Amino acid sequence: KASDIFDKLKNVEGKTKTKKEDSKLKNLSNLMNEAKYLERKGQFSEAIEMYKQVIFTLPDSVKAYEAIANIYRKQGDTDNEKEILKKAIANCKKNDEFKKRLSEIE
Prior knowledge:
Largest sheet: none
Number of strands: 0
Low-confidence stretches: none
């Protein structure tokens, strides 16, 4: 059917999202929200693990890297902050802020 072919082409071109992609995005959003909640409650190690799950699924997640770096900074853990910033620089296209921040603590 012509309409089926058209729908498939739209998906190939990325103009529409599949149900699987929508589900993945919802899951990432839920993970980020849960991590923020844990962070607010002071459960930093649990929050970091949640943010790392986001990064595992979306390796260039600027917000997740930024959140982890901020937690390490709050904890005064400069070594881990440097490590996560280096990973962010390697994995994120928009990494100027991470580079600047790393240069400030090295």
